[in-house]
Predict the 3D structure of the following.
Amino acid sequence: MELYFFGMDPETDTEHCPSVWVDARTADLVLQGWKADDETEAECLKTGSVPDYEAIIRIPARMVPMVREACDAAEQRAQLR
């Protein structure tokens, strides 16, 4: 597996921070984020269940530019397949 790194939250320490990658093979986005708090999770559960193999995470708004860049790269990568 090869992941392209797009960035991490610049306002957190370098060991425990939300981060963004794109999988080079599948063009999937790979995100590391904060676990959602109970209130956020309850709100999300109003639209459906979350299986044990999925998680609700929170990515800070200040990371939108790097998520957007990763989305663009993933889209381009997917078109090459």
In short: Residues 3-80 form one domain. Residues 64-80 form the longest helix (17 residues). The chain has a mean pLDDT of 92. The chain has one domain: 3-80.
